[in-house]
Write a structure and sequence with these properties.
single chain; about 240 residues; mainly alpha; 9 helices
Length: about 240
């Protein structure tokens, strides 16, 4: 599921200080990494504890609890709030929402520990990290304008979301495989595109203020979603099921 919001980068100014741009990108990656750590901890705790997983799923009926539904839809609601209320929310409020989002995402991801082996989860995570890192470097260093590619990738993303909904009813293993391959390709490309977009935002900043700090959080959120979606699609392809 992709929860991204692309309107946060509309406010830019003329480039003044290159060090500010580097600081901006460094902070983006720091906040993104922090969110991944928080999500990873919560995912592991809930995914490996029968008692905690019981808060998400009814272990007798197999159905999802109210809290379980909250962990599924809560992150989407929080992203919408952060995007739509960007100008009115304080930086402190954004940090709290970002932290809660990271925790809820981790809890919602805990089910992977019930489906896949621990070893394959670790293996796919490192593959994801390597792929993400390589594409982030491409996006940061390339002189090619990736704007047109980004538009195509977003359209393709909408396509696989629709296809995923359709396949939820069809239960086609072949379509699921194709969707997973396309998902990997799309989020690999989006990683480079988003990093380049964030670099340009950083280069357009005139000074450090609260709005800049909020832009950092939204940028980190964007890259976090690229990483998580890439990880999940790779896990569907290469993860070893229990």
């Amino acid at each position: 599921m992709d929860l991204r919001n692309s309107n946060f980068g509309t406010q830019t100014a003329r480039p003044v200080d290159g060090s500010l741009a580097k600081s901006f990108m460094s902070n983006v990656f720091s906040w993104m990494s922090l969110a991944l750590v928080v999500s990873g901890v919560f995912a592991y705790l809930f995914g490996t504890s029968t008692e905690l997983i019981g808060y998400i799923y009814n272990l007798q009926t197999g159905g999802m609890t109210i809290f379980g539904y909250l962990t599924v839809f809560g992150p989407l609601i929080l992203v919408l709030i952060m995007g739509m209320r960007f100008q009115k929310l304080s930086y402190g409020s954004m940090v709290i929402l970002y932290a809660v989002f990271s925790a809820l995402m981790g809890i919602s991801l805990s089910s992977i520990f019930l489906i896949y082996t621990m070893g394959s989860i670790a293996k796919v995570f490192f593959i994801t990290a390597a792929t993400f890192g390589a594409m982030a470097l491409v996006g940061y260093t390339t002189k090619t304008d990736l704007t047109k590619f980004g538009s195509i990738l977003y359209m393709a993303l909408i396509g696989i979301i629709i296809a995923s909904v359709v396949n939820w009813f069809m239960h086609s293993a072949q379509m699921d495989y194709i969707i997973s391959i396309l998902g990997v390709l799309i989020f690999t490309g989006l990683t480079a595109y988003d990093v380049q977009k964030l670099k340009r935002i950083g280069m357009g900043l005139e000074y450090q203020d609260e709005n800049t700090n909020k832009l950092v959080l939204m940028g980190a959120l964007s890259l976090y979603l690229d990483f998580i979606n890439l990880f999940l699609f790779l896990l569907r392809l290469f993860g070893d099921r229990k």
